[in-house]
Amino acid sequence: MKLFKKILIANRGEIAVRIIRACKELGIRTVAIFSDIEKGSLHVRLADESICIGPANSRHSYLNIPAILSAAEVTDSEAIHPGYGFLSENPQFAEACATSGITFIGPTPENIRIGGDKAKARQVLKRRGIPVVPGSDGPVISEETAVKIAQKIGFPVIIKASAGGGGRGMRIVREEQELSHAFHMAQRESLAAFGNNEIYVEKYLPSIRHIEVQIISDGKNVIHLGERDCSIQRRHQKLIEEAPSTIATAKFRKKIGELAVRAAKAMKYHNVGTIEFIVDQEQNVYFMEVNTRVQVEHPVTEEVTGVDIIKEQIRIAAGFPLSYKQNQIKPSGYSIECRINAEDPEKFIPCPGRITLFSPPGGPGVRVDTAAYTGWVVPSHYDSLIAKLIVHGKNREEAIAKMKRALDEFIIEGIKTTIPFHKKVFNHPDFIRGNFSTDFIDRMSNGNVSNGHKIFEVVDSQG
C-alpha cells in the first residue's frame, strides 16, 4: 500500500494552501488549479504544478467538473482533494472522479447524498435512535403541511432548506401568520442557492449551543476527536470556534462523542466528517446535520488533539487504516479560532481590494492559516475569508489572552477586515465567562447580552 504520488487540489485560498502543506510533508506532489484572475495566488506559487481552468466566475472554473477532471488527467494526478465549499459536497463530482479513475479524497457519494439532504439525514439517524429536534419526518412540500406540523410542535419553528447550508434557505417563524411568507421565501432561496426547493420544519429552540464533533472513519473503524463549540455566529454563519466547549463535563463529552460515532456508523461513513448538534440549557442533545467534508474550523481540533486531519484524509483515501484508536485521543489545553474576513466590521459588507500591508501575528501558541500576503488583491468573486487566526493555551483563560494579543498584532492594511469586531467579542465579559448562546452576536449588537443570569452553566474547560 502506497500514498499517492500526485494530488490535484480542487480549491483555492487558505484551504488549498493548507492541503499543499500537508502533501509536501507526506512527500506528495501537488497540482493547483486557478481561475484567470488568480495566477499570482499563494496556492499557485506553492504547488509543484498549476493549471488555469477558466474565468473568474466559479461556475466556469472551480465548479466546472469537466475542466477539473481534464486538469487532473493531463497532469497525471491520482487523486483530487476538494477542500471545503465548491464541489466538496457534490456527489456527482465524487462519482465523476471514480469514473475517471481518480480517487476522491472525501466520503462516499452516498455519504454526501445523505449529508446533503438534511431531511433524509434526520430520518436515517432518528431510526437509529439518535435524538433529533421535534419536526417533520421528511421534506415538506406544501404550506398546508408546514402549518399542521408547526401547530403540532408549537411555535416558534424554524424552516430549513433540505440541501445546502450556511444559513441560506432558513427562516424563523414565531407566529402562524408569518409562516406563509417564510415558507415560500425559504423555498425560493433554497432553489436559487442549491437548485432544490425542498424544506423541512423543526421546533425552534432559543438559547442553544451549536456543538459539533469531528469524526474520522476508515470504513471499518470510527473515532471522534472531541467537540467544538461553534455558537458564536451571525445569521447562522460561524465566526468564532473553540475546543473544547465551556459547557462540556466529562459525562457530556462522552455522551456526545458516542452519539457522533453512532451516527457515523449508521451512515456507513468513510473518511473525515462532522456531526453537528444543538444543545439546550438542560444539556439535551439533538442531532442537527452532517457535514461531509473537512470543516473551516478543523484547526482547533488539530491543536487540542495533535491529529493532522488533512493527512488522515489523504491516508484513508489511499487505503490506509486509521492512524489512531479512540483511547489514544487525549485532548490537551484549549484552542480558539477567529475567521478573519475582508468585510466591514460593523456592516459585514464584503470589502475586496488590494492588501497594502499584511503582517500576521506570531509567538508561542499562535497559528495563522491564510493565502494572503502584501500586494495580494482580494477578489470579489469568492468567499471573503482571508485568514484563520488560531491560538492554543493550557486553558481557556490563556487562550483568550493569546487571542487578544494576536488580534492586536495582526496588521492588514488597504482593506477593511473583521479584526475590530473580534476584539469587541474577546473583551466582552459574557464571552470571557463563557456565558453565551447562538444569539450572542444579535444580543451584543442590541446591547442586551449582560442580563444578570447565566445562559449556560460553565464548567472547567478541562472537563
UniProtKB/TrEMBL annotation:
<dbReference type="InterPro" id="IPR005479">
    <property type="entry name" value="CPAse_ATP-bd"/>
</dbReference>
<keyword id="KW-0275">Fatty acid biosynthesis</keyword>
<dbReference type="GO" id="GO:0046872">
    <property type="term" value="F:metal ion binding"/>
</dbReference>
<keyword id="KW-0547">Nucleotide-binding</keyword>
<dbReference type="InterPro" id="IPR051602">
    <property type="entry name" value="ACC_Biotin_Carboxylase"/>
</dbReference>
<dbReference type="GO" id="GO:0006633">
    <property type="term" value="P:fatty acid biosynthetic process"/>
</dbReference>
<keyword id="KW-0444">Lipid biosynthesis</keyword>
<dbReference type="Pfam" id="PF02785">
    <property type="entry name" value="Biotin_carb_C"/>
</dbReference>
<protein>
    <recommendedName>
        <fullName>Biotin carboxylase</fullName>
        <ecNumber>6.3.4.14</ecNumber>
    </recommendedName>
</protein>
<dbReference type="InterPro" id="IPR004549">
    <property type="entry name" value="Acetyl_CoA_COase_biotin_COase"/>
</dbReference>
<dbReference type="GO" id="GO:2001295">
    <property type="term" value="P:malonyl-CoA biosynthetic process"/>
</dbReference>
<dbReference type="Pfam" id="PF00289">
    <property type="entry name" value="Biotin_carb_N"/>
</dbReference>
<dbReference type="InterPro" id="IPR005481">
    <property type="entry name" value="BC-like_N"/>
</dbReference>
<keyword id="KW-0436">Ligase</keyword>
<keyword id="KW-0067">ATP-binding</keyword>
<feature type="domain" description="ATP-grasp">
    <location>
        <begin position="122"/>
        <end position="318"/>
    </location>
</feature>
<keyword id="KW-0092">Biotin</keyword>
<dbReference type="GO" id="GO:0005524">
    <property type="term" value="F:ATP binding"/>
</dbReference>
<dbReference type="GO" id="GO:0004075">
    <property type="term" value="F:biotin carboxylase activity"/>
</dbReference>
<keyword id="KW-0276">Fatty acid metabolism</keyword>
<dbReference type="InterPro" id="IPR011761">
    <property type="entry name" value="ATP-grasp"/>
</dbReference>
<feature type="domain" description="Biotin carboxylation">
    <location>
        <begin position="3"/>
        <end position="446"/>
    </location>
</feature>
<comment type="function">
    <text>This protein is a component of the acetyl coenzyme A carboxylase complex; first, biotin carboxylase catalyzes the carboxylation of the carrier protein and then the transcarboxylase transfers the carboxyl group to form malonyl-CoA.</text>
</comment>
<dbReference type="Pfam" id="PF02786">
    <property type="entry name" value="CPSase_L_D2"/>
</dbReference>
<dbReference type="InterPro" id="IPR016185">
    <property type="entry name" value="PreATP-grasp_dom_sf"/>
</dbReference>
<keyword id="KW-0443">Lipid metabolism</keyword>
<dbReference type="InterPro" id="IPR005482">
    <property type="entry name" value="Biotin_COase_C"/>
</dbReference>
<comment type="pathway">
    <text>Lipid metabolism; malonyl-CoA biosynthesis; malonyl-CoA from acetyl-CoA: step 1/1.</text>
</comment>
<dbReference type="InterPro" id="IPR011054">
    <property type="entry name" value="Rudment_hybrid_motif"/>
</dbReference>
<comment type="subunit">
    <text>Acetyl-CoA carboxylase is a heterohexamer of biotin carboxyl carrier protein, biotin carboxylase and the two subunits of carboxyl transferase in a 2:2 complex.</text>
</comment>
<keyword id="KW-0460">Magnesium</keyword>
<dbReference type="InterPro" id="IPR011764">
    <property type="entry name" value="Biotin_carboxylation_dom"/>
</dbReference>
<keyword id="KW-0479">Metal-binding</keyword>
